[in-house]
Amino acid sequence: MRRRDFLKAAFTAAALTASSPSALLAAARKTPQVDGTAPAAGSDSEFVDSHLHYLDFLQGTDGLEALTKAMDKVCVGRAVLFGMPMIKQWDPSAPQKPKYYMSNDSRCYYYSGTDFLLLKHLGEAPEHVRRRFLPFVCGVNANDMNAAPLLRRLLEEFPGRIAGIGEIMCRHDDLTALTYGEPPRADNPAMLPVYDLAAEMRMPVLIHHNIAPSYAREPLYLQEMENALRHNRKARIIWAHVGVSRRVEVLNLPEIADNALRRHKNLYFDISWLVFENYIARDDASLDVWAALLSRHPDRFMIGTDVVGHWETYPRNITKYRPLLARLSPETAAGVSRGNILRLVRTY
Ligand SMILES: [Zn+2]
């Protein structure tokens, strides 16, 4: 199928979601089994992307074919791929259709259709494209006591297809402020059964949970994540961006991360998005500090692009890690750039 037709079919199907969910479900069920050991793409590549959004905040995408081409350009063999659990509302009063959650002051809300769109598109993609991706599911509200049952339902509807859970959106500065309801947090009673489910299914949970409010210098929300980590030691939690987001300016982040890793053996960090530019790669000295931290915990860190639905910026969001990786031993660099995430995901 030509790319334009591929996208047209995808968006037509998306538009039909509300009226014919059974058709979407049937197509999505064709998603093939995840094979974490598949040698084709990944084993001899430089990177595995551990944090990639197939869909943007309007649930749009450039599609899988274009994505694999972008990955090929920069030696990314495989990628953890998930949708976007939030959607930005287009208010009638807004003169322009928004593109991003911060485009205007309109609300955001939880959008569970994201998982079905991802699984449908993967189900329709050719085998050589499909095997590049490790699909995660994410479309639940972290404040909803039904979050774990809804995720379990998805795992049952798509047996053998899903490699992990996330990116679950908990505290997220402006995004939280723009979303109806109480701020979601990692230790919300609704999230605890999600960790139990992940442990039962032997899959990781990737969570965005700010370590502090904007402009706070102390990690005021660290305790919430620590409560989550203590709840079920068999649940492996990947804390996205080391808890950093826009305008999060905690002091001593490497020290805080080091101590948290020592206290919680089920904690992992992905260093995607702003934490890399704002903390890790600020200058040579900061790169040295973080390289030392990664070397002390060689199995606990992973890289990702956190690119959202459109792939023009994909290459530079993975090659940016090279100055950090160059400071690591070959073994540690291999773990951070590929092996650590592949060890965590569920394989079938
Ligand atoms: Zn993300």
How is this structure best described in words?
It is a single chain. The protein is of the alpha/beta class. The chain has one domain: Metal-dependent hydrolases (TIM Barrel, Alpha-Beta Barrel), CATH 3.20.20.140. The protein contains 15 helices and 10 strands. The chain has an 8-stranded parallel beta sheet with strand order 1-2-5-6-7-8-9-10. The protein has a two-stranded antiparallel sheet with strand order 3-4. Strand 5, helix 6 and strand 6 form a beta-alpha-beta unit. The longest helix is centred in the C-terminal third of the chain and has 15 residues. It is globular, with a radius of gyration of 19 Å. The N terminus is likely disordered. The protein binds zinc ion. Zinc ion binds next to strand 1.
Relevant terms:
single chain; 348 residues; alpha/beta; TIM Barrel; eight-stranded parallel sheet; 15 helices; 10 strands; 40% helix; globular; disordered N terminus; binds zinc ion
